[in-house]
Amino acid sequence: IHRKGTPQLGDVACFDRKGPWQEHVEIVCGVHGNDFSTVGGNVGVFPSKVKVRHHMIGSVSPYLICFARVL
Questions:
Q1: How many angstroms separate the CA atoms of 26 and 70, rounded?
Q2: CA–CA separation, 38 vs 42, rounded Å?
Q3: In whole angstroms, how large is the CA radius of gyration of the chain?
């Protein structure tokens, strides 16, 4: 597990959404310089969808808790 920094493809991005469904994870599916993309389910209002979301490294704080890497 690494706190923040530059993710790698396949990392698990762990988020704290600060709501009734607080924790959330998404898979890093793209890294492009200072940007990264994640794919995750249960995103948005009901009926929730699977979506690809784009983030700037450093700008998702404080919601990004960490990246985890499965070896």
A1: 13
A2: 13
A3: 12
- Is the dihedral angle over the CA atoms 61, 52, 71, 57 positive or is it negative? negative
Token pair, residue 8, equals: 């790698």
Q: Which residue is listed with tokens 């994870």?
A: 25
Burial of 31 (0-12, 13-18, 19+ CB in 10 A): middle
pTM, full prediction: 0.80
Token pair, residue 7, equals: 């993710």
Tokens linked to 48: 């929730």
pLDDT tens readout for residues 54-64: 988 877 666 88
